[in-house]
Amino acid sequence: MTLLQKEYNDVAYISGPLLFVNAASDLPNGAIVNIKDSRGKLRGGRVISVSDQNAVIQVFEETRGLDLATASVSLVEDVARLGVSKEMIGRRFDGLGRPIDGLPAVVAEQRLSVDGQPMNPAARAKPEEFIQTGISTIDVQTSLIRGQKLPIFSGSGLPHNELAAQIARQAKVPGHEGDFAVVFAAMGLTQREVSFFTQEFERTGALARSVLFLNKADDPAVERLLTPRMALTTAEYLAFEHGYHVLVILTDLTNYCEALREIGGAREEIPGRRGFPGYMYTDLASLYERAGVIEGKPGSVTQVPILSMPDDDITHPIPDLTGYITEGQIVVDRTLNSKGVFPPINPLPSLSRLQGNGIGKGKTRADHKNVADQLFAAYANGLDLRKLVAITGEDALTETDKLYLKFSDDFENYFIGQGDQDRSIDDSLTVAWGILSKLPQSQLTRLSKDSIDKYYGTKMDEMWRGGRSMQ
Fold first, then answer.
1. CA nearest to 417, candidates 310, 341, 336, 311
2. What per-residue string of b and e applies to 342-368 under the rule 16 or more CB within 10 Å gives b?
């Protein structure tokens, strides 16, 4: 498509990262433009709103130094696009899709709109294939299913970056290791975090099957809004054009939403809850709903968005709206983290609504669901008893109660707290049975007799945390 090289010179005013241009109603909404100042310097921008009065442009760089009288706007592309190629695997890009690994630009096989194409609901296939993350708490109790969107709810100062790197390193669809890829998009990172992810991906070899999009904290907020769309466009291309099973990890969605609020404030929009735009639900849904499996296509897109809850408040608008759109949540727990348990995932408030579709006989193991239920019940009982002991002391407990207390300690230390081990689903279930075998058989009410006969008494040789073998 040939675009007319028309210039728009009537810049009305500038508000933060936004440029308001009069007499530009013919600019396409979502178009990419160049803004030229009096010295000939070019800045990139994107049209985010068009009306009869003006067009609003998000500028990708600083607006400082732009003169209203001399600034001009010209159309570059009718919609924001990303040049995609299979050769992007193993590469690092900034938030706008520009290479930052010192290698040449990717030779694009296609140029795709970063807003993606709506997925026909009638063409969606039911997600029902297990993804193994190598993390016991997720694999056994909050299973991730291919095509699912399963967010991680964390808090400030908790190790969600380390957890994200571990998932990116270990995740696989059993039987499809060769066509599994990770698209990792980080938004609002400090330089230290950029260095951590870059070194971690290179050190572990995970970069060889990954595409990284890294948006730094000092990059413009506008760029932060495009970063997840760049990542998802790449994921959709790899999945539905080349048949990859793609796991998309987005971190930190809280930084994304803060950028959304900043842009909304600059546009003088009427704020919603806690100052966030009223359309934040729709905006987040436009990201999350790009996960799925399509009938007749071999690939899939699975999402693990990570967000840090302000003040650990799960009712905050960001986790609250995310919970409405997605299919469960994985909760990173501050108490477990303070005990030195890693990864500090609390299975009690965590949930995977699609777990039942992808586990069980022929998929993981026949006893998987019942083991998950039994672990949940026994751990909840153990935590209740801890509260009771804080009031009455251990003398008031029965022998069975004391076994539950010991179970909750072992569960945290050896099942949840696996460190940086990469456990297969069989390994995780072995650890689970080893801990459950410390309880009397009469207490294992959620397990079948056949499973108890087969697995009760399982030993956990060499299953440890922090170098400590379990006795």
1. 341
2. bbbbbbeebbbebbebbbbeebbbbbb
d(CA 215, CA 194): 9
- Give the rounded percent of residues in the chain with a pLDDT score beyond 70: 96
CA nearest neighbour of 417 among 345, 335, 329: 345
Other CB atoms within 10 A of residue 390 CB: 8
Q: Which of 172, 237, 174 is nearest to 209 (CA)?
A: 172
Which residues are registered as beta bridge partners of 154? Answer: 308
- Over residues 154-177, mean pLDDT: 91
pLDDT tens column, 205-232: 999 999 999 999 988 888 899 999 999 9
Distances (CA, A) of 279 to 58, 113, 282, 288: 17, 21, 5, 14
**Are β-strands 245-251 and 210-216 bridged in parallel, bridged antiparallel, or unpaired?**
unpaired
pTM: 0.91
Strand partners, 464: 469
Mean pLDDT of the chain: 91
The pairing of strands 32-36 and 42-50 is antiparallel
Candidates 62, 76, 83; CA nearest to 33 is 76
Q: What angle do CA 419, 423, 428 make, to 5 degrees?
A: 100
> Rounded to an integer, what distance in angstroms lies between the CA atom of residue 43 and that of residue 61?
6
